[in-house]
Amino acid sequence: MAKRTKKRANAKTTAARRPRQAPKMLSDLFLETLKDIYYAENKIIKTLPKMAKAAHSKQLSAAFNKHLRETQGQVKRLDQIFKMLGKPARGKPCEAINGITDEGAGIMKDFKNAPALDAGLLAAAQAVEHYEISRYGTLRTWAAELGMPDAARLLQATLDEEEATDHTLTELATSVINLEAEGEYRAAA
After folding, report:
1. Taking a C-beta distance cutoff of 8 angstroms, is the pair 135, 179 a contact?
2. What does the H/E/C string look like for 117-151?
3. What is the model's pLDDT at position 181?
4. Higher confidence at residue 1 or residue 63?
5. What is the pLDDT at residue 59?
6. d(CA 112, CA 16)
7. 40 with 94: CB under 8 angstroms?
8. In angstroms, how far is CA 120 from the centroid of its own chain?
9. Confidence (pLDDT) at 72
10. pLDDT tens by residue, 66-119
11. If you write DSSP's letter for every residue of 7-59 in order, what string do you get?
């Protein structure tokens, strides 16, 4: 019991010596979320070529390659925002995007050469898009609220691209990919 009391007293003394941290503000959250999406975009740059190569549909592969080029431009926009903030462009691990890309890798493995592979790849890509749309919408709003109109404009440009990609993927899914996967399944049954 005496050891326990001594540990508590030491912990209180150590805590009292530490300088108090300033409360975390919206600007801190903005920077942390910017690091999160920076990591995510760089992870996506590594993942999209694998998805494009795995896709059976030339249209889907082309959509992945187009989005790869867009994503590279989006990273450049993020670099500009970090520069505006006077901070190094650096990501922090994003468990959400790691999980989504791991799920996509699992689809590529589990459905390799299967009729539904492209439908699964497309679904994984849309999960990524929805995550990005959420992040960029939030960051754009925060940038505006923090009085950073140039950052808000850059984030809006990326948000517009992400929404357009999501729309393209939905069109591709409903007009070709899902129908092919379903048709081949019915033909095989």
Report:
1. no
2. HHHHHHHHHHHHHHHHHHHHHHHHHHHHHCCCHHH
3. 86
4. 63
5. 94
6. 58
7. yes
8. 18
9. 98
10. 999 999 999 999 999 999 999 999 999 999 999 999 999 999 999 998 889 999
11. HHHHHHHHHHHSPPPPPP-HHHHHHHHHHHHHHHHHHHHHHHHHHHHH-S-HH
Angle CA(113)–CA(46)–CA(104) in degrees, nearest 5?
A: 40
Percent of all residues in the chain with a pLDDT value above 70, rounded to a whole number: 87
- Eight-state DSSP code of residue 18: S
Calculate mean pLDDT across residues 34-44.
97
> Of 182, 171, 157, nearest to 70 (Cα)?
157
Q: Locate tokens 């508590």: which residue?
A: 8
For residue 44, what are its two tokens?
Answer: 């996506």
> Distance (Å, rounded) from C-alpha 75 to C-alpha 41?
7
pLDDT averaged over the chain?
90
Contact criterion met (CB below 8 Å) for 165 and 67: yes
- The total number of residues shown for the chain amounts to 189
